[in-house]
Amino acid sequence: DGGITQSPKYLFRKEGQNVTLSCEQNLNHDAMYWYRQDPGQGLRLIYYSQIVNDFQKGDIAEGYSVSREKKESFPLTVTSAQKNPTAFYLCASLGRTTYGYTFGSGTRLTVV
Amino acid sequence: AQSVAQPEDQVNVAEGNPLTVKCTYSVSGNPYLFWYVQYPNRGLQFLLKYITGDNLVKGSYGFEAEFNKSQTSFHLKKPSALVSDSALYFCAVRPEGGSYIPTFGRGTSLIVHP
What we know:
The complex is a heterodimer of chains A (112) and B (114). With 112 residues, chain A is an all-beta fold. Helices cover 0% and strands 50% of the residues of chain A. In chain A, the strands form two sheets. In chain A, strands 2, 4, 5, 6, 9, 10 and 11 form a seven-stranded mixed sheet that branches. Chain A has a four-stranded antiparallel sheet with strand order 1-3-8-7, with no helix packed on it. In chain A, a hairpin with a 7-residue loop joins strand 9 and strand 10 (102-103). Chain B is mostly beta strands. Chain B is globular and about 45 Å long. At the A-B interface, strand 5, strand 9 and strand 10 of A face strand 5 and strand 6 of B.
């Protein structure tokens, strides 16, 4: 079945470390997105990419970085510059003939 | 700029009663409107969308939503709530043209009591 796979499901990070969250899709979708979800704040856009080798900052890009070397993959790195990284991270994709997003199952990142 | 308002943080309803989760929006031009549901520690699942056509849209799990252009609303409804409907519900909007980036509401927690 086609879908989006996020891994790992749970991730623990020490202060000062960079961590990378994986997002892979086999839907042949062009566009991919990263959102951060905090309780009571809805979804906030971190980065998005509408084509391979191109990506744009969202509303809260500071302290995060991404790459889009392959259509199927859009990894997110949470750097040590992100002061409050504990959150639930969601990856999504959108195809040219679809109207709504397809979401992955999320990664919960906790700073320890 | 586009925006979505979900005025209720939480909606409580008894099982078997009808439910409504409210959503109002602001967007330039014609709106594309969406409802998603999220269960704990899971991603968002698509419920239904309004693109064009009938103002009453039917979706998954018996949910429906009514598009009201004059009131810029897109309320989610279900005639008879189930305990298993308890979850977090998100409304989203994006314009017909331009960027494909939707704006999400803050979410409404639906609690269905047995």
